[in-house]
Amino acid sequence: MAEGMVCKTNRGIQLYAGKLNKMKAIYYNAFGGPDVLQYGDIPDPIAGPGQVLIHVKAASLNPADYKTRRGDLKTTKGSRFPKIPGSDFAGIVKESGDGVSGFNPCDKVYGFIPVISGEQGALAELVLASPKLLRNLPEGMAFEEAASLPGACLTALNGLRRLENLQGKSVLINGATGGVGHFAVQLARAQGAKVTAVCGSGNYDLALKLGASEVIDYHKTALSTVDKKFDMIFDTPGRMNKADVCRLLNKNGVYASTIFNRADFFFSFFVQLVFGKKLTSASMRAYTSDFEEIEAYFKKGFLNPYVEQTFALSQAIEAFRLAESGKSRGKIVIRI
Q1: Domain total for the chain?
Q2: Whole-angstrom Cα distance, residue 320 to residue 335?
Q3: Rounded CA gap, 281 and 271, in Å?
Q4: Farthest CA pair distance, the chain
Q5: Structure confidence by residue, pLDDT tens digits, 102-121
Q6: Nearest CA to 112 among 174, 68, 154?
Q7: Is 207 within the bounds of a domain?
Q8: CB–CB of 124/183 below 8 Å?
Q9: What is the pTM of this model?
Q10: How far is it, in rounded angstroms, from Cα 173 to Cα 237?
Q11: Do residues 128 and 47 make contact, with C-beta atoms less than 8 angstroms apart?
């Protein structure tokens, strides 16, 4: 064992010791389902120039994590094995490489790893992060809460931004109690929108608690039968029928989807030209100003990450199975 790193905190002295050569991690050596994941030893990463080495305390799962593992988002770099999944994380800085300023040993941080670009992820005891995608942990925010934020909350923020001004607007959020959706409901409400949530009957109360004014139970009411119109539709699973979208949107309304392919792009030109309605992508954006905005909402009490289930690192395969079932609420977090 290497000599531990001692960090002084408000609660006394805590020891963070890392292994000299190996760390525990979740990794895979081939694309496939959850069964390709393994729990074992991987060589410790070493901080190079412009990198920060972090002891991971918590990580959360996003669709990009299991889509990358399945091989849906293959890139040249992303095809090199072994691969460690996990985009979102929170932890404690161990050391910084040359050229890094603003992050010191023992700092509590959270951030995002672009695993779809081939980077090694955060489901491990140690992770390397770019300081551009790293933030100091806001006061009062737990590691589990911080680890749930980047991918899902930044996607929700950018998706809602497509409407520009939400004050007094009617917003339909499909998948309102999922990872992106539960953040979108809170952010829309905080910006003055009247939110209608679409979710299953088991999540009705949660949707209201998050800030929805109305709830549509898709088990009982098909969207094809809804006769209201909305200024914005945020389709967090990206599965809505485009005919329903066009019918439910007000003129000059905006539909934002987390899944927007080439066919959708061309179809959007037709819809805007003929019906005066905008169809667009709700992709993640990670500017410094975006992080600052979600942190401000958290500090004011308008944004509360909902973490219903946590798993140990060794239980990550079970966590992935739950994430891919589509039955989870809020975020799934893995403690490390």
Answers
A1: 2
A2: 14
A3: 14
A4: 67
A5: 999 999 999 999 998 889 99
A6: 154
A7: yes
A8: no
A9: 0.91
A10: 10
A11: yes
